[in-house]
Amino acid sequence: MNFDQARFSRDDVYEPLLSEKDSTTVEVDADGVLPDDLTRDELTLPGLSEPQLARHYTRLSQMNYSVELGPYPLGSCTMKYNPSFTEDVAGDARAAVHPDRSDRTVQGTLGLLHGLQEHLADIGGMDAVTLQPPAGAAGEFTGILIAKAYHEARDDDRSEIIIPASAHGTNFASAAMAGYDVVELPSDEDGRVDIEALDAAISEETAALMLTNPNTLGLFERDIVEIADMVHEAGGLLYYDGANFNALLGRARPGDMGFDIMHYNVHKTFATPHGGGGPGAGPVGVVEELAEYLPSPMVRETAAGYEQYEPESSIGKVHGFAGNWLVLVKAYAYIARLGDEGLADASAKAVLNANYLASQIDLDVPYGPFHHEFAATSGDRDAADVAKRMLDYGVHPPTTKWPELVPEAMLTEPTEVEDKASLDDLAHAFNAAYADSDEALETAPSKTSARRIDQVSAARNPRLSWQSLGDEE
C-alpha cells in the first residue's frame, strides 16, 4: 500500500518535498514465534532506496536557514556565528578525558578550566568564577542561590528580589524558583531604571536587584553607581544578567560598576553554541565576599599543580563534574584567539553594526542612544506580520512584540560578525516588508519552504508527522 499522493497535492496543502515521502506496507508472518499480543500482521516502512534517502535529507538541509547562510538579528537572546576553529579545538581527541580521572592525570584539563576561570573573572571584574552551570538561565538560578546562602549565613532572612519589567523572563523564574517574591520595577520615560520607583521598592526584605546593563532596549544604565549604592545601603546584592555583556567587552566591567554577582552568556559573548538549558554554559562570577558559596568543585593552582577543591560554604553541585567541558573549551579558545584587543574590537563592532542598521531602516526607534541592539516599532503595522514578510526577502527577522515598553516592537541585534553588505540586505528587507501592502503582510511568508501557519492550532494541536496530513479534522 502506497501513500496516496493525490489526496495531498500542492493545491490542497503545501508540504515541502511531499512527493519524496513515500512508504510501503509489508506483510509480517510471526505466527507461533511470539505471543499474539506482541505481534502484528503488517508493518509500514519507508519505501525509499539509499540514494533517494540521502538526496531527500540533503535537499531538506538546503531548505533550512542557518547562521552560515545569513544573520539571526534576534534581539537579546541572539544567535551569532560560531567560528569553526573552536569546533576543531573541542573535537581534538585529546580533549576526550574521563571526568573521574584523578587530578594529577588531567593537569592539562584543570589548567584550561583554571585559565578560563581567571579570564572570565578578569573580563567581568569579579574575584572568582564557577564554570558549572549548563546555560545562562542555570547561571541565573545559581547566582540567586549564592545570594540566598550569603543572606542566610548572616541570619538575614530576606524575601524579595527586584527585577525590571523589561528583564528576561528567566530572571523572574530564577527568583521564584529560589523561593523569593518578585518585585517588578517599572522603567522611566527614558527606558532606564526609574530611580524613584527603585527607592520605593527597596526595603529590608530586598535580597537582590537583578539588572541587565545595557538593558533590553540597548540602553546603558547611566545611574548604575547610584543604583548600586542604593541596593548595598539596604543590605542587598546587585546581580548582573550577562545577556548583553558583549556590548561592554574590554571597555567596562560589571564588577567596577558595583555588581556583586554575574552570569556570563558565553553563547553570545564568547561564541559557543546556544544552550537552551544545555548542553551550553553559563559561568557565574562573584566578588570575594561571596566566593566561599560557589558550587563545588572549583579549580585552583598550588605549588604541586592544579587541583579541584570545595569552597568553604559551597551551595553544592549544580551540574555534573566541572560543567559542560567541551563548551568551556570553545569559550576558552575564542577568548585566547581574540585576546584583549580582539574582545574590545568585538564590542565596538557590535555597537557600530546596531547603530548603522538602525540608521538605514524606515522604522522608528523610540529609545536611544543605544549600544548593541535596538527596539524599533512597526507602528500601526503588526510586527509579527512584518517579520513574516521579511522571510520572503531571504533574511531571518528580529524578535517581535517584546519588550512591551515599545509598541509592536522589533528588537534587533545584528552582532559584530556581520559586514556592511549583510546589514544593507537586512535594512532592505526591513524597509520592503514594512512598506508592503496589507494583503502581502497578512499572507506572508509566501516564498519559504514552510508557509504561514495557524499559530494557535499549531501550538495546541501540533502535527508531528507527515502521515497526519491525512487525519480528519
UniProtKB/TrEMBL annotation:
One Pfam entry for this protein is Aminotran_5
- Gene Ontology molecular functions: glycine binding; glycine dehydrogenase (decarboxylating) activity; pyridoxal phosphate binding; transaminase activity
Domain Aminotransferase class V span(s) in chain numbering: 145-275
Q: Which residues form the Glycine dehydrogenase C-terminal domain?
A: 346-439
Q: Which UniProt keywords apply?
A: Aminotransferase, Oxidoreductase, Pyridoxal phosphate, Transferase
| Gene3D superfamilies in alphabetical order | 6.20.440.10, Aspartate Aminotransferase, domain 1, Type I PLP-dependent aspartate aminotransferase-like (Major domain)
**InterPro entries registered for this protein in UniProt:** Aminotrans_V_dom (IPR000192), GDC-P_C (IPR049316), GDC_P (IPR020581), PyrdxlP-dep_Trfase (IPR015424), PyrdxlP-dep_Trfase_major (IPR015421), PyrdxlP-dep_Trfase_small (IPR015422)
Give GO cellular component annotations, separated by semicolons.
cytosol; glycine cleavage complex
What is this enzyme's EC? 1.4.4.2
Bias (Polar residues) ranges: 464-473
What are the recorded Gene Ontology BP terms? glycine decarboxylation via glycine cleavage system
Q: Where is this region: Disordered?
A: 439-473
Query: What reaction(s) does this enzyme catalyze?
Result: N(6)-[(R)-lipoyl]-L-lysyl-[glycine-cleavage complex H protein] + glycine + H(+) = N(6)-[(R)-S(8)-aminomethyldihydrolipoyl]-L-lysyl-[glycine-cleavage complex H protein] + CO2
The domain of life for this entry's organism is Archaea
Q: What is this protein called?
A: glycine dehydrogenase (aminomethyl-transferring)
- Could you tell me which species this protein originates from? Haloferax litoreum
Provide the organism lineage as a comma list: Archaea, Methanobacteriati, Methanobacteriota, Stenosarchaea group, Halobacteria
